[in-house]
């Protein structure tokens, strides 16, 4: 028993030492003591904010959780901005959510999220002409309903799309995208700011004409740091409603990066249960106000949010 306990203590000490080495104790800017452990928003940061489509203006179009509507005969429309976009039989754009998974199919959008992004029912859906019927499938949601999947990705509508051809949910929060007929993200025009974004690594860099070299995620969306966070010990001051506007960057494998500092490239297990990627141990976010790849609308917001340089430093902050 004594030998087992000693080995356990050694292993624990080694784990702490490894994290200390990765994140370093020289980091400053510690978050307020009350930040860690703050209660998350009741909606999980998905639907109550102004960037997620569940405001009062969309009330008449919203569906309640589990209110999945049949898609019928799916169709494809050619958007000049987005390329080929999958729609339901009424011409409404279908979307996919980055926090879902296709292998295995899993929907993570429920509660208020499902109000803003009504799931599409699996029953009655048929493939568009020219699209392989085998791409259509279904996933059982938490409430027992069956949701349509395309190549494994759960499909949704957006409550603020009020007429056929609307795609107001495109790029929302850096996690919602119009679906292509094969279940992939609809591709923007080659001339657009996000050209080739679908082929980007999980994290990489781009040269911004005003900010210089900054970090972007796999969708080409700008990555930010919050000056009220801290790197050692790793703490977050962005919780609850803050996450509606500043979604966390989910964990990225080191071999799925390009041009990013590898020191302190670790996953932060947040007190609200989310897992967040860091660079140099600083938590990373995107901004819901950035609608398209190349946007930097979050730069300098509140004097506390800044784009991230490849070494994890905030861009435009004087020392």
UniProtKB/TrEMBL annotation:
Residues 44-56 have a biased composition (Gly residues). Coiled coil: none annotated. Residues 31-43 have a biased composition (Low complexity). GO terms for biological process: alkane catabolic process. InterPro entries: Lipoprotein_repeat, SCO0930-like. Residues 1-24 form the signal peptide. Keywords: Signal. PROSITE patterns: PROKAR_LIPOPROTEIN (PS51257). Residues 28-66, 124-144, 181-206, 292-319 are annotated as: Disordered. This is Lipoprotein.
